[in-house]
């Protein structure tokens, strides 16, 4: 914990007055004498001399001269106003040996007995730099086994361009979200600042490219990032922000992307970047998720190593960490990272001999062997316990030092008699601490409750207010006590007045000193920090402070419900929904019956957050209980109930996947808020069509200036109505209710035009444009409405950008614009979707980027296949069911086309996808994908007449099932090619008539700017002319279509057009040589594309033509 207090504290009297303000009157009047041992000298600086009390020279720190020490004579002189001060260069230790023995230097022993472990870490480090595949190393062992020391030794081997940083989880704050991870990333930010302004500027731009100028939750988690990001409140490209109704939606996905983006940027600058996360057994759920996010980021190609240590004795099969480790083992291949598990064992007797030989050299080898055996028996080989045991022998004077030979000796029999066997180092340390002076014990107890690290201003605040209640004498300032504890190896001091415990066991021992009064410590210290720190520092470490209060609030005092609400809101804001749920639940438990009247805002907000958090965690029943506790009340307004009602709509549609029930619930809520969708449900469809036509006319009639000058709506009720309309539209689509889908979309457009922009306005106009093209074939209106949608995205933050971009392009603009723009658009949609946590449309955009567009534009099949496993893994990570099915569908299709070992490439089954495995026939997207995949395999691998017969049977099934999707372009084109080929071969009119319908539709679209549809039109015209026996005109069109597709480089259609042209030249013009040339060209393009079965078929045909 690191804070500044609200103002400078005055000495003594002022501090006394302050404590009365921070502690209640009944508490401040009682001394907590049992907190500390009563048999110690009250003077804070009475020197501790070991397990047996022994009076030594007493030293005091002067208030006027901090750091100066005085003997008893000096003190008497001071009382006679004759001070005689002799400054000391180093503070005197509390734990000083009974006799004048030289200090023990355990550093001289080095890392004993750890050669194998060090070699393993070195091997992992070398492998990281060689293949740049992420490394995850999990180091387990008992507390005190030396895990941290072994891991920290790696820092010396990190190249100068790399960085080793550490974050630690604390036993006192195991519920604090992201604590260790945030600490580690905070250190990275500090290192970047130290690198200079040019480095900061470069990384700032890299981070903005990934995260935008609104890092959001990261600022709350990692305050140091603000100095790098320079968070801005406005941007020239936008006029304002749109507040979202449900800020929790997509929160987990936003967090995943944010941490991954940070790791990518930081690991690109520091090579390698090594993150050491200590004491993972105390990590919260959210921190373990972040660890998984970082190591499973297949897009991060920079050298990143994550090392986690944990206590094996505190991890069992029911623990969070155990389950996470099991899950990570199963993901190494899928997400391309190495995972190494390393167990640190206790010292062997030989290792202890090595330590003793280095630290306590003796002339008697048998003495070393004997002491090593005794140490092993007493400590069970625990390295930390071994060191403490030897320190105790040193302090107690159980060994002697020979100045002449510089060797040690001891009486082994005496040591055996005076010591006892125990595996609990905390007990031994606690006994040692209880022999410290009273004030030191009290200070250690206060520090132990602040966590594994703390700052001097923080402990000073707690000590000045609380210390005088714990000791009988006047408290000494922490500025004089802390250096002594550092000298005694209890604390370690770092930069910026920061201190940390030298070992967790020391902190545990100090906590145990509080005994049964630990709850009182927690509550009192928590209150001191909550009320005594400056507001910004309370916010910075809010979770730790509220945890202290909750741990000590055994009497359930209701005054802290608001503090828990504050913590719950912060946890929700950082997508730590497990913590948000726990804080909200604790706050609710503190509420009184009268709080619904006297403290309504706090009460309502606690229930709302609890319901939201439980729903996000998938605990539907728990969320429903919290919602019903609110919705069943009659003393709340409709506006106050709206957040809970919206949550129920979300639960039905998104979590329970009951689209029909969710739609009906949304419609009933809309009706209650004066937004009736239809008066007569059976007439909803004609009403929807009429409303849609009116909305299109109204929107088209508005000048462009109207849309450019639109402002955000600030009506809270309208925002919730907009949210409910969006949920109604989504669930109507999923339930197949076209009328409600159309009406909901039109209502969103009407609300936007009448009352101003809301978070769904851009999406509504994108869909209005798409429906204009699919229903009215009005492509000009479609283009205008989509551009209005995109203009809103540029003007306002907070809108659903990924959805609007995807819908506006995939269902709209790609019909009238070049497909070559698609790659850049898809990348933008992916980035926006990840920033806003919209995994649904991020995933659709990834499919477009990796599969749809590359396939339509004829990229090499093997290149497309390379990206399929990665996106499939990501979709499985986010449990994106529809996207998983779609990916598997096309993945299998591409494998069938390109795998020479596939025995029946025309049949859409295989190791990735099969209908016998995937039972999702009711999903319209899945059905549409099946139509395309099955049709494409027949088209490329069978005779065209077989494909034509299928085309007649299937008809416009894909367009009807998934209207507007630009995949219809290639699906329709291939149906037409097969139909024309069958018509030319069989002379049957049914094929030609069906083909002509598609050709005419393509011709109507060819007047726009879609260059792909333009060459489709040219080629289908050539086929039409060829079927009508107009060879000269047909040849011209064939040549023009080949020229057009050649400019675009669509390999599959370069093969197809050459193949069909070859057939035309041979069949109608009898130009055998030119026909063979075109067939050879087709084979070459098909081979480059990767269609092995097609190549084999045409090679047989070429061989036959030559014979």
Automatic annotation (TrEMBL):
PROSITE patterns for this protein: SIGMA54_INTERACT_1 (PS00675)
Segments of skewed composition (Polar residues): 25-65
Biased composition (Basic and acidic residues): 1-15
Classification via Gene3D superfamilies: P-loop containing nucleotide triphosphate hydrolases
Biased composition (Basic residues): 78-96
Highest taxon of source: Eukaryota
Location of region: Disordered: 1-108
InterPro entries: AAA_16, Hybrid_Histidine_Kinase, P-loop_NTPase, Sigma_54_int_dom_ATP-bd_1
Domain Orc1-like AAA ATPase as annotated: residue spans: 111-307
The protein, known as: Orc1-like AAA ATPase domain-containing protein
Species of provenance: Cylindrotheca closterium
């Amino acid at each position: 914990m690191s804070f500044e207090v609200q103002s400078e504290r005055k000495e003594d009297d002022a501090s006394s007055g302050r404590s009365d303000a921070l502690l209640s009157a009944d508490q401040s009047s009682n001394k907590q004498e049992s907190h500390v041992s009563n048999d110690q000298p009250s003077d804070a600086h009475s020197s501790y001399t070991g397990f047996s009390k022994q009076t030594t020279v007493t030293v005091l720190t002067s208030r006027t001269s901090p750091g100066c020490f005085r003997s008893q004579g000096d003190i008497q002189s001071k009382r006679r106003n004759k001070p005689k001060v002799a400054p000391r260069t180093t503070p005197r230790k509390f734990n000083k040996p009974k006799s004048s023995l030289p200090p023990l230097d355990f550093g001289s022993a080095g890392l004993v007995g750890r050669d194998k472990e060090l070699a393993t870490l070195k091997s992992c480090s070398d492998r990281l730099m060689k293949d740049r595949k992420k490394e995850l190393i999990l180091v387990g062992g008992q507390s005190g086994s030396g895990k941290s020391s072994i891991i920290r030794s790696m820092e010396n081997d990190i190249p100068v361009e790399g960085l080793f940083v550490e974050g630690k989880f604390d036993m006192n704050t195991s519920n604090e979200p992201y604590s260790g991870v945030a600490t580690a990333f905070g250190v990275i930010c500090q290192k970047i600042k130290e690198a200079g302004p040019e480095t900061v500027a470069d990384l700032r731009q890299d981070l903005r490219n990934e995260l935008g100028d609104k890092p959001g939750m990261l600022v709350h988690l990692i305050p140091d990032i603000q100095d790098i990001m320079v968070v801005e409140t406005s941007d020239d490209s936008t006029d304002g922000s749109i507040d979202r109704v449900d800020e929790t939606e997509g929160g987990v996905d936003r967090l995943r992307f944010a941490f991954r983006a940070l790791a990518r940027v930081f690991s690109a600058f520091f090579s390698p970047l090594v993150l050491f996360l200590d004491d993972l057994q105390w990590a919260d759920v959210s921190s373990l998720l972040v660890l998984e996010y970082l190591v499973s980021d297949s897009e991060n190609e920079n050298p990143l190593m994550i090392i986690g240590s944990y206590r094996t004795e505190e991890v069992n099969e029911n623990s969070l960490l155990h389950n996470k480790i099991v899950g990570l083992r199963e993901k190494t291949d899928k997400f391309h990272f190495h995972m190494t598990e390393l167990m640190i064992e206790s010292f062997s007797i030989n290792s202890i001999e090595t330590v003793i030989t280095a630290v306590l050299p003796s002339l008697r080898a048998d003495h070393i062997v004997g002491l090593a055996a005794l140490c092993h028996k007493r400590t069970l080989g625990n390295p930390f316990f071994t060191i403490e045991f030897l320190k105790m022998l040193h302090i107690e004077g159980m060994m002697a030092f020979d100045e002449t030979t510089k060797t040690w000796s001891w009486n082994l029999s005496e040591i055996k008699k005076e010591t006892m066997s125990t595996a609990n180092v905390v007990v031994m340390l606690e006994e040692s601490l209880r022999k410290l002076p009273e004030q030191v014990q009290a200070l250690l107890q206060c520090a132990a409750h602040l966590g594994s690290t703390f700052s001097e201003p923080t402990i000073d605040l707690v000590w000045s207010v609380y210390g005088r209640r714990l000791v009988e004498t006047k408290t000494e300032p922490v500025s004089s006590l802390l250096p002594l504890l550092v000298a005694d190896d209890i604390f370690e001091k770092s930069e910026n007045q920061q201190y940390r415990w030298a070992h967790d066991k020391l902190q545990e021992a100090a906590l145990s000193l509080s005994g049964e009064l630990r709850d009182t410590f927690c509550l009192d210290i928590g209150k001191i920090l909550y009320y005594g720190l400056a507001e910004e520092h309370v916010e910075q470490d809010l979770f730790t402070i509220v945890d202290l209060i909750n741990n000590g609030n055994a009497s359930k005092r209701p005054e802290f419900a608001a503090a828990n609400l504050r913590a719950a809101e912060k946890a929700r804001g950082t997508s730590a929904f497990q913590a948000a749920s726990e804080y909200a639940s604790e706050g609710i438990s503190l509420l009184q019956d009268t709080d619904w009247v006297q403290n309504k805002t706090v009460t309502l907000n606690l229930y709302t957050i609890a319901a939201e958090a439980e729903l996000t965690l998938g605990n539907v029943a728990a969320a429903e209980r919290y919602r019903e506790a609110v919705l069943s009340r009659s003393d709340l307004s409709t506006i106050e109930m709206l957040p809970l009602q919206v949550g129920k709509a979300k639960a039905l549609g998104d979590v329970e996947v009951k689209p029909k029930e969710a739609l009906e619930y949304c419609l009933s809520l809309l009706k209650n808020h004066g937004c009736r969708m239809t008066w007569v449900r059976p007439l909803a469809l004609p009403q929807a069509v009429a409303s849609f036509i009116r909305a299109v006319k109204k929107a088209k009639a508005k000048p462009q200036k109207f849309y450019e000058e639109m402002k955000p709506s600030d009506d809270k009720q309208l925002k919730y109505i907009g949210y409910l309309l969006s949920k109604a539209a989504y669930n109507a689509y999923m339930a197949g209710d076209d009328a409600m889908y159309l009406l909901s979309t039109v209502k969103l457009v009407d609300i936007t035009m009448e009352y101003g922009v809301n978070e769904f306005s851009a999406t509504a106009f994108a869909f209005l444009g798409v429906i204009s093209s699919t229903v009215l074939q009005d492509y000009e209106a479609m283009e205008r409405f989509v551009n209005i949608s995109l203009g809103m995205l540029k003007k306002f933050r907070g809108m659903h950008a990924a959805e609007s971009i995807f819908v506006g392009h995939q269902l709209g603009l790609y019909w009238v614009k070049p497909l070559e723009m698609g790659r850049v658009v898809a990348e933008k949609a992916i980035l926006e979707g990840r920033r806003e946590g919209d995994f649904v449309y991020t995933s659709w955009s990834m499919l477009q980027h990796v599969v749809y567009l590359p396939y339509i534009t004829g990229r090499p099949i093997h290149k497309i296949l390379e990206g399929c496993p990665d996106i499939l893994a990501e979709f499985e990570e986010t449990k994106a069911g529809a996207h998983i099915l779609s990916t598997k569908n096309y993945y299998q299709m591409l494998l069938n086309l390109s795998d020479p070992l596939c025995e029946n490439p025309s049949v859409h089954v295989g190791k990735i996808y099969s209908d016998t495995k995937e039972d999702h026939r009711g999903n319209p997207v899945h059905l549409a994908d099946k139509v395309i995949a099955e049709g494409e395999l027949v088209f490329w691998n069978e005779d065209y007449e077989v494909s034509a017969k299928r085309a007649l049977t299937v008809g416009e099934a894909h367009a009807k099932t998934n209207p507007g999707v630009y995949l219809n372009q290639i699906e329709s084109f291939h149906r037409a090619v097969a139909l024309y080929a069958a018509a030319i071969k069989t002379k049957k009119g049914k094929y030609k008539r069906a083909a002509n319908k598609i050709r005419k539709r393509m011709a109507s679209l060819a007047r726009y700017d879609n260059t792909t549809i333009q060459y489709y039109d040219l080629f289908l015209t050539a086929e039409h002319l060829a079927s009508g026996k107009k060879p000269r005109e047909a040849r011209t069109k064939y040549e023009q279509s080949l020229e057009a597709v050649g400019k675009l480089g669509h390999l599959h259609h370069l093969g197809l057009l050459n193949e069909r042209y070859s057939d035309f030249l041979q069949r109608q013009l009898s130009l055998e040589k030119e026909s063979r040339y075109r067939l050879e060209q087709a084979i070459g393009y098909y081979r480059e594309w990767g269609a092995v079965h097609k190549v084999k078929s045409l090679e047989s045909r070429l061989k036959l033509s030559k014979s």
